[in-house]
Predict the structure of Cellobiose-specific phosphotransferase system component IIC.
Amino acid sequence: MDKLMSWMTDSFAPKVNKMAKNPWVASVQSAILTAMPMVFIGSFATILSIVKDYWKGFPDFSLLSTFSFGLFSLFLAYLIPEAVMNNKGHKEVSKQAGLAGLAFFLILVYPTLTAEGQIVFDLNSFGTGGMIAALLAGLFVGIIMNLFSKWKFIDEDSAIPDFVAVWFNT
């Protein structure tokens, strides 16, 4: 047992700590931890829905459970690229990166167009079924925004107002 503890302390833990300090891994970790309250709310609502099966007058909380779990992938699609930009030192475009991640995720889940011209999403792709798509969308947007935020189309010392320069640079 001492050998195992010694190996964990001396060899395994430093490697895991080094990996956890990677900005990409830290961004995913931060995003999941930030969105975790939605999982707790959904879990609590699921437990309350089980009580409804045994007590006939108890309200139905299944919609709350479905809704809170369904928001999880939307939150990840926003939070991952935002955290990537913050961890990479591009705080000025972190919110724009989050919104781009959300938009890219919505494109990835493949909405359909109805005959009436309305866009319809399959709600199953927003919950845990869409987590991988949200993770990939967030990381992809984080990579692209990180690459392009290193290049500036308009310098800070130009005559163009700052907010217009930020728009073009973003």
